[in-house]
Design goal:
globular, single chain, two-stranded antiparallel ribbon, 3 helices, 5 strands, alpha+beta
Amino acid sequence: MKTFLLAACFLLLAAEAQAVSRYDPTRMSCDRVQATIDRQGAVILRYQSTRVPGLPLYDRYVRDERFCNAGEVRARAYVPSADTSSCMVYVCKRPDFERRFRRRFLQD
């Protein structure tokens, strides 16, 4: 019985991981990219790098912090879209407390 419950848990986790939709923001307007993230809560945006030809870039973008893991916060990020080169979206990041600490006490 324990084996069955463990297998069911793994299947649910795998199904949840596949539930995140993937989009190419360069084929959508900025408003549509933001509306898609707002509607779905979390999406994966995949696009080609402008600095390194042929290099695909991707990340998970979220509506709010409820879609982030524990200990992460929502931070601004920018992706290219069909109508602008920098469409503002949000990504989950771990806060960088060390950087703030160093900047505050080591500036003289």
